[in-house]
Amino acid sequence: MGIVSKAIGRIASIVLDLDDTQLPQDQIAALNDFLAKHKFEAATKNLDDFLGMLKKKHLVDSITVSSAGEMIASSEGNGISDNFSSVALVEFVTKQLSKPDTILLKMPNGWHMIFPFMQKIYIVKAGTNLSTIELKALAKEIDAFLKSKGIKNKKNGKIIGKAF
Amino acid sequence: MAKTITFVSGKGGVGKTSLIANVGVALAKNGFKVLLVDADVAMANLSLLLGMQSSPITLHDVLLGESNIQDAIYDGPAGCFFVPSGLSLETYRRVDSERLEAVVNSIEERYDFVLIDAPAGIEKNVMSAIAAAKEALIITTPDSPSLADALKTKLVAQRLGVNPIGVIVNFFRNEKGEIKPKDISKLLELPVFGIVPEDPEVRKSFMQENVAPVILRKPNSPASLAIKRIAEKISGKSMGVILEEKKPGFFSRLFSFRRKK
Ligand SMILES: Nc1ncnc2c1ncn2[C@@H]1O[C@H](COP(=O)(O)OP(=O)(O)OP(=O)(O)O)[C@@H](O)[C@H]1O
Ligand SMILES: [Mg+2]
Questions:
Q1: What residue ranges define each of the domains in chain B, with the CATH number in brackets?
Q2: B208 lines ligand 1 (CB under 6 A)
Q3: CA–CA dist B105, B111 (Å, integer)
Q4: What is the residue range of A82's domain?
Q5: For residue range B186-226, what is the model confidence (pLDDT) as tens digits?
Q6: Which of B248, B209, B242, B207 has the alpha carbon at shortest distance from B228?
Q7: Are strands A70-74 and A62-67 parallel, antiparallel or unpaired?
Q8: Which of B6, B45, B47, B119 is deepest in the core (most CB within 10 A)?
Q9: What is the ipTM of this complex?
Q10: Is A49 within a domain?
């Protein structure tokens, strides 16, 4: 009985193909969906569009860039006041302690991150705090974009470049 | 200038450490100067697989700024070099993994390849490991949970400005329910750098008196052959057969780790 039923079972499984493994099509479709939501168009030439794209790509709420004390780019309307307080904070911390890699402020509405990098100050707000590595990657992307647009660091309070 | 590549996966246990050790050994055996860096600062495994028993100075000490990277480089099998991560939980709590990029930058020009073994996940230590290299190789198994994590990992690499160059499919069994490598490639939008079969010889690496990567123990096993092809793809150099060394005293020579001066 044992041998016979085993043999029949084996034949049945070959004939009927009882192996029930098959591709999880729904899950693959879900992954494709996920991917479609994370496509970022970096080809834009417009500064506002670029910052909007960066916000999505880096999962942050706002980005403001300051050079020589003045705001040169911001994804939000409140960029100017963020710029003033951040520049003052960096100066204060540098004077009282030493030059910081980042200043992280935990506010009731999330994190404010102030990141001095290559003669500019980047002010980033987000629900969670970014590591220095993430802030640096973000800053590098912005820097490359500004350079490609001819927006250089400010000199003597004047913006060098044609975008303004 | 070295090619610097981080092996990363998102999901744990998919074979990052096994692949990096074996690819590193295959490259070294073919005359390349290879440095393997165990950037899994919490769960150091790479040095165990390379047969290293104890290492007085580790990456922990370097990241803490207490030692020079020079003093944390050891001789590994087949002429490769490696930096062990450190087993101490106490130093792990204090290390700043963000310094890894500067550490790698300071030595990379002395090697043909610097391969970095990343931890699982997508948290800070993983990002540090990714950002320390110019390129990332994504490791996945042919199933949806692993692939989902691979996707996220690819996005993280891109966010950090690191170039994902390809995907390696490990634990391949060629079963009906498995996601096919060509579909994995399509989904990740990355070329397949290798398909490594599930091979019991890989796991047996740790079950020998002298632990050694499978490519040295069983160079003709299916996984070893696939790994050799990955090394060829990474280096652009054809490698012929990797011979099993049978000379007496081989293992004792292999595991006589000396501190690099
Ligand atoms: N192709 C393979 N065939 C069989 N076993 C394998 C294969 N690749 C890896 N393994 C085994 O799977 C286990 C996990 O592998 P490994 O430690 O390399 O993964 P990992 O991705 O580095 O894990 P972690 O995320 O914990 O760092 C090990 O026991 C290893 O020997
Ligand atoms: Mg590992």
A1: 3-260 (3.40.50.300)
A2: no
A3: 11
A4: 43-153
A5: 999 999 999 999 999 999 877 776 778 999 999 999 999 99
A6: B242
A7: antiparallel
A8: B6
A9: 0.82
A10: yes
